[in-house]
Structure formats: structure tokens, C-alpha cells
Amino acid sequence: MHKALKAISLLLSYPTEELIAGAPELKTALDADDAISREVRLLLGRLIDDLAGQDLYDAQERYVYLFDRSRSLSLNLFEHVHGESRDRGQAMVDLKTMYEDQGFEIDAKELPDYLPLFLEFLATLTTEEVDDLLAQTGHITAAIGERLRKRESVYSNAFAALGLISKAKPDQKLLKELLDGAEDDPNDLEAMDRIWEDEVVTFGGNAGDNSCGPDRLRTQMRAAARKPNDPLNTIPV
User: Fold this and answer.
1) Which PANTHER family match (predicted)?
2) Facing residues of 76 across strands?
3) What is residue 155's predicted lDDT score, i.e. its pLDDT?
């Protein structure tokens, strides 16, 4: 499981010359790991083969088109449940604190909820902890994977593999609510400019006195299920 999570983290990262050059070696390592199921190896193997056959700039352009120009495919987890609300800043603080409590250091250039970073963190945890956190984020990753599948993107393989690794099925109500949301058009640059003009999310420093950890993350990940007038919204998240 842990090697597969690390591999998915790498494959969902921005393509670099090193990643593409090392793709065959990554595939060999996954094939040699009996702890990874055949289905997961096949799914990731197809994605690895695709990346290995790509021109670097073509691979980077495709990645940006999918994940950077479409909020509905954003690899920042809290984007799907908090958007640019102030709640997202606190959620970032809590997730960053969870990393630090486990001795996991993050690169300052990435937000804590960046999925490849989150998966890299999971690869350092126990199986029980991985299962818990994958279950909490399952509706988000399933929604991204389904949208990629509809676009016939080979990147959907990474999310299908993640679904196989997770022991829990995604919350179907939360998944439906995410999939029912409108998908933005990455070709509509003016609309994308308006979307990203929202205020910048900041985090750090004043985290407050609320507890952090897996239970807190569960509350934050379920935020999408709350209606505006729901009394639960009065609870700080």
C-alpha cells in the first residue's frame, strides 16, 4: 500500500524530466512489489507507460490544462469543500499541524491540501491511519476521478487505483453533491480569471484553540454536505 501511495503521489505531481526519465524504473519497482494488487499495478502501469511516451512539454501542458485551469479537477482537496472561504484557511492550519505532529516536513511552495503531498504524507503512516484518512477524503478523490474518466484522461487511472487501495467506499451522498456541481471550462480563460481573483487563502500563526487531527479533518472534509442554514454551520471548521 505505502509504495503504491508514494507512486500515485509522484504520478500526480507536475511532470518533470526526472519523472518521465524514471517512469520505467518506477513501473519495475511496482511490478516487483507483491503487496500491490494486480489491478492497481495495471492501472498505474498504463499511466506510467503514457508518461514515459510523452514529450516533456506536452506532458506539462496537459497537466496544467487539466489540474491548474479547472477548479473541478483541482488537486487541492479543500478547494472542493471550502472553495475560497475563510474556513479553508483554518483547515489548512489544521492539516499542516497534523503533518508537523507526525514529523512530516512540507515544502513551503505547496499548500498542505495538495493531493500529491497528502499522499506522500499518508505513505509515512500506519495502515490503520491510511485507511481512516483515505475514507475521509474518498468522496473528493472519487469525484475528481470520475470527472477525469468522463474526459477519457489516463490520469483517471491514478484515482481508480486510489479507490482500490482504500478499504472504505466513498460517501455516496457527498460524492453526488460534488458531481452535481457545475464543471468549469478550462478553455474559458476570462471565466477562470474571475474565479481565481478570489481572496488569497492564508494560514499559519493563529490557528486558534480548536483541536487538530483526524477527527478535525473529518469535519472539514464533510463541509460540502452542509446547507447554508444548517445549524451545524455554526460550529467553527
Assistant:
1) NITRATE REDUCTASE MOLYBDENUM COFACTOR ASSEMBLY CHAPERONE (PTHR43680), NITRATE REDUCTASE MOLYBDENUM COFACTOR ASSEMBLY CHAPERONE NARJ (PTHR43680:SF2)
2) 114
3) 97
